[in-house]
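Re: that backbone. Tokens:
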């Protein structure tokens, strides 16, 4: 590391430790100055950690706030004879890990990147309707009529039985078999 940078890091560490000691001793102004100095460093740390994990930087501010809250609640546990940075960044690292765990394994991709190749709403709905119509046409006539009457037209079991001159039990059996057959056909797409 460049000697000038090391001197600045060492000076920063000494100042942070001095401010933390003063804050723990009851100096509210020193504690506020410490938090103001820590915030940009924690924001950069959280942003880098999220970027390394392939996550959006949108959660960085939440991680900073959680880290500052933990620091406030646990500040009496810091060993005043030791450096502040390792203790602080250990808290920040745990808060980053917690945020990544809560988030789960998601990859965020802007939909704008795919706008040209995604079908419009009308196209997508049309293709689904065409698939359903095609598969309905492949069902035996009794099942097809019952499924169409109930699932497409919205008829009740009693209404479908009346329209199709079938018993309620026969309508239920045909509906169950027809829907099971359709479900199997659509599962084959997965």
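Recovered sequence:
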């Amino acid at each position: 590391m460049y000697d000038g940078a090391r001197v600045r890091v060492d000076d920063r560490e000494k100042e942070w430790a001095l401010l933390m000691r003063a804050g723990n001793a009851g100096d509210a102004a020193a504690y506020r100055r410490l938090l103001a100095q820590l915030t940009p460093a924690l924001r950069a740390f959280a942003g880098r950690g999220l970027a390394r994990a392939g996550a959006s930087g949108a959660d960085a501010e939440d991680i900073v706030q959680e880290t500052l809250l933990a620091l406030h609640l646990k500040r009496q546990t810091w060993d005043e004879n030791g450096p502040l940075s390792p203790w602080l960044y250990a808290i920040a690292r745990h808060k980053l890990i917690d945020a990544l765990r809560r988030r789960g394994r998601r990859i965020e991709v802007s939909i704008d990147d795919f706008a040209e190749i995604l079908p419009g709403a009308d196209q997508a709905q049309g293709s689904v309707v065409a698939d359903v119509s095609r598969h309905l046409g492949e069902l035996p006539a009794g099942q097809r009529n019952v499924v169409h009457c109930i699932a497409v037209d919205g008829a009740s079991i009693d209404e479908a039985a009346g329209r199709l001159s079938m018993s309620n039990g026969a309508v239920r059996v045909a509906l169950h078999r027809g829907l099971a057959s359709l479900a199997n056909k659509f599962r084959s797409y997965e």
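The longest helix spans residues 28-52. The chain has a mean pLDDT of 83.
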